[in-house]
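Hi both,

Apologies for the delay on this - the queue was longer than expected. I finally got the zinc ion-bound model through. Below you'll find the protein sequence and the ligand SMILES exactly as submitted, and right after that the structure tokens for the full complex including the ligand.
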Amino acid sequence: MKSANLAHSADRHGILWHIAVMLRQWFDSDYRPPGWQGDDKLTDGIDWRRCIPFIVLHLGCLSVLWVGFSWAALVAALLLYAVRMFAITAFYHRYFSHRSYRTSRWMQFLFAVLGNTSCQRGALWWASVHRHHHQHSDETPDVHSPRMRGFLWSHIGWLTSPKNFPTDYSRIRDLEKFPELVFLNRHDQLVPILYAALLWYAGAWMEKHVPGLGTNGPQMFVWGFFISTVILLHATFFINSLAHVFGSRRFKTDDDSRNNLFLALLTLGEGWHNNHHRYAGSARQGFFWWEIDISYYVLKLLSWTGLIWDLKVVPASVYREAQQLKLSAGRNPA
Ligand SMILES: [Zn+2]
Ligand SMILES: [Zn+2]
């Protein structure tokens, strides 16, 4: 989800230079041209060049008018939404950003690849931005705070800002020591392109070998890539926007984070955002059995297979705090 981000030097270079750098950065997000003034000089605002990928993705959904509908394509889109939402919540968020459990180097690589199919850039960029969010939640430096910059900015505007484009490696020293993760992060278009090509191929294969399904390459591509990905993007972005605006607040955190059942169902557990801001190090975000957290259930299953281990739990002190807040709310109803 990116394009060039060189607005700060727009006065010194021609449009061709900008296009060349933009294309180069599409294939290597860590590329900096000769004479680069430094990432700290990047501007903070909406850059139309970085809007292009979002516009293309949304317009791509309209091609459903040409490729049509089939149950196979719809089921594929829903399944791919669920798998990739799990990859974002359980891998990009709970593993790479918060290290709330442990796994092997091979699995870690697989997690980064699966998360990358969501078109939300590389795991290292994602984790670096997210750690920054927890450090400055709803304060001035927070890159996606509805309190500070409004709902639309927190939802999608911040992603188009040149300032938020680079990966801040100083925040992910624990991850940058793995060259395979750095490679994926730099070349973060590689996996989405492969994913899209695979969908097209799978659809073409089905058309030939299982014609009864009524699907084909272009249809599987439109439903599995454009439609599924756009819904996935907005559902993820809701955690930055809606989950800081609508819902209940169990804990009196310094930010505006909320617990929201609808968002928890939509994002497989991320909607318990107030819980999460109170204690981010836990592998579960639904702190109680009635707070549905599908990502946590799957992580628990994975831990029984031995593929992941050391799932971090919510400390007893946090549960006591929740209990005390509930009791005091009962004594002093609002
Ligand atoms: Zn938050
Ligand atoms: Zn978090």
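Main takeaway for now: The chain has 16 helices and two strands.

I'll put the files on the shared drive as well.

H.
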